[in-house]
Write a structure and sequence with these properties.
Blueprint: E1 7-12, H1 20-33, E2 37-41, H2 44-49, E3 53-56, H3 83-95, E4 100-105, H4 107-118, E5 122-127, H5 143-164, E6 167-172, H6 179-187, E7 192-194, H7 203-215, E8 221-226, H8 232-243, E9 247-251, H9 263-281, E10 287-292, E11 295-300, H10 301-306, H11 313-322
Parallel strand pairs: 1-2, 1-4, 4-5, 5-10, 6-8, 6-9, 7-8
Antiparallel strand pairs: 2-3, 10-11
Helix pairs in contact: 1-9, 5-6
The structure holds adenosine-5'-diphosphate and 6-O-phosphono-beta-D-fructofuranose (F6P).
């Protein structure tokens, strides 16, 4: 028989992402609207273990839909990877009357939610990461804002790169995933895109491309390099020495994770946040919300974590042709 849910908790975990606040707002208001009580857990799983738990009302989430970051704060918590930490977390939930939890974060945060579900607390995960690297969903909260922030910055670097007839290596976020690099690479018309999933470490190919493009009259050469490959500054020095073309590195960094969320991030986060409240209210547990083939869907966490996501091959091939 499904457990009766009276009070839910909500936390954000892992790297923050623009749109997390819109998701928090939606979960809080939908749950309260449906007769549930809501508690906010500050600073992710670390805050749960420290019992940093606050009551939330509809007005607690006023004026946050347009704000980047997360009003609940976020953290990485090594203790929550242990059985003792997970049991303690579940005990703290019971102590505070929390029957179910919404966890907004990435794959790692889902594993924490899975552990809490095993300990008897109903859980649902929402995809919150700028990296788009969650296999069960075509959309993750924060990706759209991050790529638009990066795209605008890259356009600016391109202006100065063309004026000085330089090569620019621009490093974007994505420690394990190249989605930001691929989307910006295409949207910014980059000459080369280096993705952790595809890079063969053959720098000579890059050097040959730069020399060839120069001969064909290209004034700049933009290389979008994903953080997972990194080493943009040393790469720039080697490329300049090999090509004779002045080469500069720009690392965009954390600016990509902040800022006011785009309309798309606010919209999807709002629907997903409400959907998560519905899942918990219905007594379901161990679920994650996704957006797939034009619909909002939910999966068992284990099933979701077993899925694999690949860089779209056609998009990558096209990117290689369009800027030549
Ligand atoms: P993300 O959620 O963005 O993938 P992390 O991988 O850093 O970010 O995970 C966020 C937090 O989730 C970790 O600091 C930890 O507290 C928790 N977590 C990660 N992996 C596990 C795991 N295997 N079991 C329990 N909790 C985990
Ligand atoms: O939010 C995703 C992400 O930006 C990754 O691309 C990156 O590897 C990671 O977070 C870095 O986060 P932090 O420096 O906060 O650990």
């Amino acid at each position: 028989m499904a457990k009766e849910i009276k009070t839910i908790g909500i936390l954000t975990s892992g790297g923050d992402a623009p749109g997390m606040n819109a998701a928090i707002r939606a979960t809080v208001r939908k749950a309260i609207n449906d007769g549930l009580k809501v508690k906010g857990i500050l600073r992710g799983y670390q805050g749960l273990l420290n019992e940093e738990i606050i009551d939330m009302e509809k007005r607690s989430v006023s004026d946050i839909i347009q704000r980047g970051g997360t009003i609940l704060g976020t953290a990485r918590c090594a203790d929550f990877r242990t059985k003792e930490g997970q049991q303690k977390g579940a005990d703290i939930c019971r102590k505070h009357g929390i029957d179910g939890i919404v966890v907004i974060g990435g794959d790692g945060s889902y594993r924490g939610a899975q552990a809490l579900a095993r300990e008897g607390i109903n859980t649902v995960g929402l995809p919150g990461t700028i990296d788009l690297d969650i296999a069960c969903t075509d959309y993750t909260i924060g990706f759209d804002t991050a790529i638009n922030t990066a795209m605008e910055a890259i356009d600016k670097v391109r202006d100065t790169s063309s004026s000085h007839e330089r090569c620019s290596i621009i490093e974007v976020m994505g420690r394990n995933a190249g989605y930001i690099a691929l989307w910006c690479g295409i949207a910014n018309g980059a000459e080369d895109i280096l993705l952790p999933e595809k890079y063969d470490y053959d720098e000579q190919k890059l050097i040959d491309n730069i020399i060839k493009n120069r001969k064909h009259g290209k004034k700049h050469h933009i290389i979008i390099n994903a953080e997972g490959i990194g080493h943009s500054t040393s790469m720039a020095k080697r490329i300049e020495a090999a090509t004779g073309v002045e080469t500069r590195a720009t690392i965009l960094g954390y600016m990509q994770r902040g800022g006011s969320p785009t309309c798309k991030d606010r919209y999807y986060a709002s629907i997903m946040g409400a959907y998560a409240a519905d899942i918990l209210a219905s007594g379901k547990s161990n679920r994650v919300v996704g957006y797939s083939h034009g619909e909002f869907v939910d999966y068992d966490i284990e099933e979701a974590l077993a899925m694999e996501k690949e860089i779209p091959e056609y998009a990558f091939q096209v990117s290689q042709v369009l800027s030549r």
